[in-house]
Design brief:
It is a single chain. The protein is of the alpha/beta class. It has helices at about 15-35, 50-55, 110-120; strands at about 5, 10-15, 40-45, 65-75, 80-90, 100-105, 125-135, 145-150, 155-160, 175. The strands form two sheets. Strands 5-4-3-6-7-8 form a six-stranded mixed beta sheet, sandwiched between helices. Helix 1 (about 15-35) crosses helix 2. The protein binds guanosine-5'-monophosphate (5GP). The site of guanosine-5'-monophosphate has 19 residues, from strand 4, strand 6, helix 3 and strand 9. Guanosine-5'-monophosphate binds next to strand 4, strand 6, helix 3 and strand 9.
C-alpha cells in the first residue's frame, strides 16, 4: 500500500492520479455538452479547488471565462470551524451569466450552501456546482451537486489540492487518513 506518514497520522493512497484524470475528462465532456453555445463563468473556490479547477477547465471544449473566490471555514487542521469568511470576492459581474462553482470537496455542505446563497443574490442566469469529492453521509444540503467526481466515505483526505495544515496540496493522488479497527487515527 502506498502510504505517507504525517505527524502521528498515516495516510494511504485512495484515488490515483490516473483515476482522477479519467473522471475529470468525463466531467469535462458532460459540461461541454451541457454548455454548448454558452460561455459559462467557471468559479474556482480557493485554495483547495485550484488543481481540480485547472484540470477541469482544460477538459471543457466550449468557451469559458474564469474567476475565483476565497473563503475559509477550516481553522484547525482537520475540522471545520462552522464559520465562513470571504477573503477574496469575485471580479466578474455575474448577473444574467451561467455560473459553475468548482469546489474541491463537499463535506458538511456549509461552504457550498453559503456560496450558492451568496451568488444567487446577483441573479445569475443559472448556477451549478461541480465538486471533485462528495462525502454523502455528511453533506446537509437540499440541492444536488450537479457534477461530482467521486462519492467518498467521511474520512479526512489530502492531496490534489486538499491540504493538511496548508501542506500536501501538491500530491498528485488523493490520500485518505487510515483509521484503526476502533475508528481511531492510526499512528
Ligand atoms: P464543508 O463546508 O462542506 O464542510 O467543507 C468544505 C471545505 O472544507 C472544503 O472546501 C475543504 O477546503 C475543507 N474540507 C472538507 N473536508 C476535507 C477533507 O477531508 N480534507 C481536506 N483537506 N479539506 C477538507
Amino acid at each position: 500500500m502506498n502510504t505517507i506518514k504525517i505527524d502521528k497520522y498515516t495516510f494511504a493512497e485512495f484515488i490515483s492520479a490516473d483515476k482522477i484524470a479519467q473522471r475529470i475528462s468525463e466531467l469535462g465532456e458532460q459540461i461541454t455538452t451541457d454548455y454548448k453555445d454558452k460561455t459559462p463563468i467557471v468559479i474556482g473556490v480557493l485554495n483547495g479547488s485550484v488543481i481540480f479547477f485547472s484540470d477541469l477547465i482544460r477538459e471543457i471544449k466550449c468557451d469559458v471565462e474564469i474567476d475565483f473566490l476565497r473563503i475559509s471555514s477550516y481553522e484547525k487542521a482537520m475540522e471545520s470551524s462552522g464559520v465562513i469568511k470571504v477573503h477574496k470576492d469575485l471580479n466578474s459581474e455575474i448577473e444574467g451569466r451561467h455560473i459553475i462553482i468548482v469546489e474541491d470537496i463537499v463535506d458538511s455542505g456549509l461552504s457550498v450552501r453559503f456560496l450558492k446563497a451568496k451568488l444567487e443574490k446577483s441573479n445569475p442566469a443559472s448556477l451549478k456546482v461541480a465538486s471533485l469529492l462528495l462525502k454523502p453521509t455528511e453533506a446537509q444540503i437540499d440541492f444536488p451537486i450537479d457534477y461530482t467526481g467521486f462519492e467518498i466515505p467521511p474520512a479526512f483526505v489530502i492531496g490534489y489540492g486538499l491540504d493538511y495544515n496548508q501542506k500536501f496540496r501538491n500530491l498528485k493522488s488523493i490520500y485518505s487518513l487510515v483509521l484503526d479497527e476502533n475508528g481511531k487515527e492510526e499512528s
